[in-house]
Structure formats: structure tokens, C-alpha cells
Amino acid sequence: MITLNSARTLTISAISSAILLTGCANMDETQRGTAQGAGIGVLAGAVIGQMAGKNAATGAVIGGIAGAVAGNVWSKRMQAQREAMEQATRGTDVEVTRTQDNQLKVNIPNDVSFATGSAAIKPELRSVLETFANGLSKDSNGMHVRIVGHTDSKGTDAVNNPLSKERADSVKDFLTDRGVPASRVETAGRGEREPLASNETAEGRAQNRRVEIFLREPEQASAQQPATR
């Protein structure tokens, strides 16, 4: 029979291993997430097992399995989408990142996306969106897309709010015209309400004029509201 002390040893060992594994340079995002989830799951399972008066070691094992699954929400297809977008945007100011809640975020600045005061997509953005649409149209598991438009503080809300939404809608129209189901794409306009930098300088205003695209798994869409920052 496994004692409480041995369960604690198991818990500590598993967490330590997970932490060490997450630092391995040759691990991809999916493997790293699995290791992190397993470590957290082991700890949670052991604690819950003790609180419920059950074997802590059993709880640790069950928690580790559940944690590994939860930690692996950054799937191989999400990683493939990220790599495709990084390649498509190489040499531009477009930023491709993974958010804390495991969404793929593509931040497209104004100099790549739209002319000042316009919702017409620039040629530079079209090539980026072609790659994005190609990956999504081939995806049979229904990834969800959220497109958020932003402006700087120049002009009034009466101009900026609809302009930011029109820009997001232009991106959506581009994607749906290329086979991405409209039901999987949502849009929003934030106007000047969510700046990345100070609107007091020209450089700051340029950063704030942007479109952000968030890609997430179907289960994330039903479980949470996507981050927009």
C-alpha cells in the first residue's frame, strides 16, 4: 500500500520532472503544454485525493493524466497554423504569437493592412490572408476565428468605432470568399478603446491602428470568451 509520504514524494517528483521537461529546447509547443499540464494535474489530484479521504497517490496519477490532456490544448494543427503564418508574414511587421489562453494571435499593423481612414484591404495583407484562408478552408474540425479592428485616437468615436468594425468585416469577407464558413468567423470593432501604445506620438498611434486575428479550437469557443489584448 502506498503511504501518504510516498504519495507526496511522487507528487514532488512528477512536478519537478514536468518543470524540467518544459525547459527542454527541443520540445514543441504541444509537448511543453502536456508536461506543464501533467505537473499541475499531479499536484491537484493529490490534494483532492487527500481532501476526499482517498489515496493521495491514486489522485495524483489521475490528476496527472487529466492535466496532461488539459495542458495539450495547443494542438499540432495550431502549431502548424502558427508556422504557416510566421512564414507568410516573414519580413513584415506582422506579429504571430500564442496567447496565454492558447489562441493563435496575428497582430497586423496599419501599414500592412489598411490605408488611413479606409477599410479596403492592402495588397500586402492579401497574401497573408490567402495563407490563413487556405489553412482554415482545409480544416474539417471547425476552428473559430475572431477578428478585431482598432484605431488610434484621431477622429471621433462616431468615425472610429464603425471604421474599426468595417475593417474587421473586410477581413472576414476576404476569408469567407475563399471558403472559410461565415459561421466560424466573428468580428468586432474596438475603435480607440484598446491602445497598445500612447496616442500622444505618431509612432504610438501607428501601433494602435491595427487588426488582430485570433484562432481557437472549437472547444475553446464554447467554453470561454476569447482574449482581445
Layout of helices and strands:
Layout: H1 4-22, H2 29-51, H3 56-71, H4 76-88, E1 95-98, E2 104-109, H5 110-113, H6 123-137, E3 144-150, H7 157-177, E4 185-189, H8 202-208, E5 210-216, H9 218-223
Parallel strand pairs: 3-4
Antiparallel strand pairs: 1-2, 2-5, 3-5
Helix pairs in contact: 1-2, 1-3, 2-3, 4-6, 6-7
Structure, described:
- Helix content is 54%, strand content 13%.
- Strand 1 (95-98) and strand 2 form a beta hairpin.
- With 229 residues, it is of the alpha+beta class.
- The protein is globular.
- The chain has two domains: 4-71, no CATH class; 76-223, 60s Ribosomal Protein L30, Chain: A (2-Layer Sandwich), CATH 3.30.1330.
- Strands 1-2-5-3-4 form a five-stranded mixed sheet.
- Residues 66-71 have low confidence and may be disordered.
- Helix 1 runs antiparallel to helix 2, helix 1 (4-22) packs parallel to helix 3 and helix 4 runs antiparallel to helix 6.
- It has helices at residues 4-22, 29-51, 56-71, 76-88, 110-113, 123-137, 157-177, 202-208, 218-223, and strands at 95-98, 104-109, 144-150, 185-189, 210-216.
